[in-house]
Inverse folding.
């Protein structure tokens, strides 16, 4: 019987293994259970946050962010604005790429020109071009100095530069555009050992590392031999891998699984404020939302703390306006729409909204539970609110188009602000006609302030303009202001020296085995 | 079978492929959702930048033109560039395919090894407790949600007993040179038995999760076919001739009872290949199914089109192979 024989053979092979888990890793490996594989290892050829998180361990940037999210020099030693449209960067000396090539000003200029010039990537234009706004040209001044030339003043250049990594010009010439997808030659703390597509990215310590930003101690080479980003897309499986000791860090831990991880003897939950602002966009062009009293009433009506504590397991920070408290130009003086049902009912009556008026909150499946809770809480005013679930690829474009959203009421959505700068979130979501202005909000004074701040080089004045704009937005209430969710990670007690960051990077340069 | 007959069968593939291409193209492009918007997501971008990206991806051209370009390129084996990977679609698919085929074949072997003996046993001992237990178990197996079952196995064997790994294809301590892409073969070619064992350990849970529902279905088919054959005259005759029970069952009855099982197996192989995305997601298996699902959500048109075309070809070929097997099992069947 072939069947019996091969069954036995399989069983024997399994039994003969020297313990599958023991063979799984070496002792000085740090393993990350990650929700997604990298799309490419070419820093210039993607628009994907997870891809960048992986790449950032292989490549360094001109600037980076410290754990408090301050922008600090990394490959750059110092930088200054020559004038409103010219910035100069001095490069640290003695940096080498993994291949041994020295990093020079030529590489910096090449990297940024490859990002912003049309067709600069073998006939293609980098999908990251728009992240660099009006940057036109990067020129070499001397061996250790480059200048960036902007088409118009753009004060958030510094906040946007941590999103880009420096590549080796000679490597691009050696391997070509295609080769760059899989054969990175960075100057970061780890070099690529093997990319098992869809399964894992394996990296080894780069012993010739210059040490990283002096603003983020300890400076020096990485403290572990290898780091492995292992792709585990399914939440439960990712948690299981952490609990089984197969990985040391997992991202995107769902709030509902916090207790399970906390109860485990070998892992902890780590949280950090994220950078994504959640809100319910109210269709400002449609009655009854055309009346500011209705919009304010809905803000008073929603007890968001109830949702944060009961559904989100206290893993979100309530917001009074659009900006994260960690961001540049945050207005800490904004008044609060206190939870006050009587006031909400009075405002609705004043605006002539009849009891029993039916309203719909659109959302994607992932936020169904939250949307239903919001609907139920808003219904306490006498309105009849319900949630409707859509597919994300359909819902987003529908709400972006003023014609197609004309008959819609409310939209539970969010906008990421990785740059932690108002320009990156207020301009798209609140300026008239902005790409993410799903509420259709339009306020001449806000537009004027946002436009002026875009070109204001004095950071103090810029902050003041944004604070004023935030005050108007909160007063006009185009949205129901919600919260800033925390990013949750599961972290094994086997490792130390790693804390989650607001920008959702998982930089493993300073992690060590505990 | 003659060469002409073979050529005819292969020629029948062409209209099928054309039809599938057209339907898939229309379905995915007419589904609401815009790959450019998905790529840009929350990032600041002007309308010009969005339009430039759309032009780069070839999405600014009319639907008919896009379909004809796709068809013309596909004939030459060029399926375009994956929007998100920015590499040729076929390269992206080819590096994921061996993982999916390996898992499918092992799952199929698990299914056959479980189903045939159980199905035969149930047919021989009809209406006994074995038969009833099998029918209950197979109902359970057929209706088992793979997602739930997979997680259950992980929690039990990986987290609780720590016997088997949670997911992936092979441990990170192993480096196996890629020859065929099939790790069971590559590890043996490298002469690394420990890596082979590790690969088997990684395959065990996903193969069981994927294979059991098929086993349940197959066992029911084998049981009913076998029961029918056992009631036929020639079996009675064979027994009357004084042949041993074993010889009657294995030589005379099983061969004929396997014919429906072959059809079911061929169709199921197709479904396993195309329908294992859930198992691949649960076990972090770097296969094609997961890639296709991700691509559908991201509206990665070129990849979805190429993958569905591949599934269609596989289906047609598997049915063809099933036809060939009929003739081997029963010479009376002619193609």
């Amino acid at each position: 019987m072939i069947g019996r024989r091969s069954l036995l053979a399989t069983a024997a092979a399994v039994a003969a293994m020297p313990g599958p888990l023991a063979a799984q890793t070496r002792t000085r490996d740090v393993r990350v259970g990650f929700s997604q594989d990298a799309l490419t290892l070419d820093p210039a050829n993607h628009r994907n946050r997870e891809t960048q998180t992986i790449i950032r361990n292989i490549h360094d940037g001109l600037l980076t962010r410290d754990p408090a999210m301050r922008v600090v020099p990394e490959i750059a030693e110092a930088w200054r604005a020559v004038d409103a449209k010219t910035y100069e960067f001095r490069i640290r000396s003695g940096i080498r790429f993994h291949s041994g090539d020295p990093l020079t000003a030529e590489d910096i200029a090449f990297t940024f020109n490859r990002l912003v010039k049309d067709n600069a990537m073998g006939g293609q234009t980098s999908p990251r071009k728009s992240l660099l706004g009006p940057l036109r040209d990067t020129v070499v001044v001397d061996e250790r100095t480059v200048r960036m030339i902007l088409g118009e003043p753009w004060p958030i250049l510094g906040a946007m530069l941590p999103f880009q990594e420096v590549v080796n010009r000679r490597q691009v010439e050696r391997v070509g555009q295609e080769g760059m997808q899989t054969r990175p030659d960075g100057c970061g703390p780890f070099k690529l050992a093997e990319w098992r597509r869809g399964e894992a990215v394996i990296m080894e310590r780069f012993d010739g590392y210059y040490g990283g930003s002096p603003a983020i101690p300890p400076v020096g080479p990485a403290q572990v031999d290898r780091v492995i980003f292992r792709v585990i897309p399914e939440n439960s499986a990712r948690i299981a891998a952490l609990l089984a000791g197969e990985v040391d860090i997992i991202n995107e831990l769902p709030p509902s699984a916090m207790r399970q991880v906390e109860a485990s003897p070998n892992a902890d939950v780590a949280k950090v404020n994220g950078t994504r602002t959640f809100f319910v966009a109210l269709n400002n062009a449609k009655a009854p939302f055309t009346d500011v009293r209705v919009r304010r009433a809905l803000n008073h009506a929603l007890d968001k703390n109830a949702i944060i504590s009961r559904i989100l397991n206290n893993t979100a920070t309530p917001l009074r306006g659009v900006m994260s408290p960690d961001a540049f130009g945050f207005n800490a003086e904004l008044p609060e729409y206190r939870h006050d049902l009587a006031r909400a009912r009075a405002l609705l009556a004043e605006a002539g909204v009849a009891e029993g008026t039916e309203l719909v909150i659109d959302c994607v499946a992932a936020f169904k539970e939250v949307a239903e809770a919001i609907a139920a809480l808003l219904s306490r005013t006498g309105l009849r609110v319900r949630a409707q679930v859509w597919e994300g690829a359909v819902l987003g474009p529908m709400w972006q188009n003023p014609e197609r959203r004309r008959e819609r009421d409310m939209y539970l959505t969010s906008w990421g602000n990785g740059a932690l700068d108002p320009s990156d979130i207020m301009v798209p979501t609140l300026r008239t006609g902005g790409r993410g202005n799903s509420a259709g909000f339009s306020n001449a004074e806000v537009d004027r302030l946002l436009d002026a701040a875009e070109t204001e080089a004095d950071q103090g004045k810029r902050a003041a303009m944004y604070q004023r704009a935030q005050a108007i937005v909160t007063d006009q209430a185009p949205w129901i202001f919600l919260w800033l969710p925390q990013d949750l990670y599961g972290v094994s007690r086997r490792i130390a020296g790693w804390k989650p960051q607001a920008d959702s990077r998982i930089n493993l340069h300073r992690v060590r085995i505990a | 079978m003659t060469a002409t007959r073979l050529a005819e069968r292969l020629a029948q593939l062409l209209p099928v492929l054309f039809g599938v291409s057209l339907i898939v193209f229309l379905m995915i492009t007419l589904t609401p959702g815009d790959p450019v918007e998905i790529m840009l997501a929350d990032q600041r971008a002007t309308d010009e930048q969005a339009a430039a990206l759309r032009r780069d991806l070839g999405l600014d051209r009319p639907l008919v033109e896009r379909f004809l370009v796709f068809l013309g390129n596909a004939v030459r084996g060029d399926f375009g560039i994956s929007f998100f990977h920015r590499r040729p679609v076929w390269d992206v698919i080819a590096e994921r395919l061996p993982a999916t085929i390996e898992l499918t074949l092992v799952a199929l072997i698990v299914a056959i090894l479980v189903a045939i003996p159980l199905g035969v046993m149930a047919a021989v001992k009809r209406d006994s407790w074995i038969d009833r237990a099998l029918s209950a178990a197979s109902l359970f197996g057929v209706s088992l949600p793979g997602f739930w079952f997979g997680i259950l196995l992980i929690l039990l064997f990986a987290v609780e007993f720590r016997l088997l790994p949670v997911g992936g294809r092979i441990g990170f301590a192993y480096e196996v040179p890629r020859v065929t892409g099939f790790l069971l073969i590559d590890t043996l070619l490298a002469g690394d038995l420990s890596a082979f064992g590790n690969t088997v350990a990684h395959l065990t849970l996903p193969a069981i999760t994927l294979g059991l529902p098929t086993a349940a279905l197959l066992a029911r088919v084998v049981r009913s076919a076998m029961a029918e054959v056992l009631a036929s005259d020639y079996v009675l005759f064979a027994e009357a001739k004084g042949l041993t029970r074993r010889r009657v069952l294995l030589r005379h009855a099983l061969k004929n009872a396997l014919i429906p099982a072959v059809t079911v197996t061929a169709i199921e192989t197709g479904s396993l290949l195309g329908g294992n995305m859930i198992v691949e997601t649960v076990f972090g298996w770097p296969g094609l199914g997961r890639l296709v699902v991700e691509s559908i959500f991201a509206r990665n048109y070129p990849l979805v089109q190429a993958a569905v075309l591949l599934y269609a070809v596989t289906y047609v070929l598997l049915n063809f192979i099933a036809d060939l097997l009929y003739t081997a099992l029963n010479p009376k069947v002619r193609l």
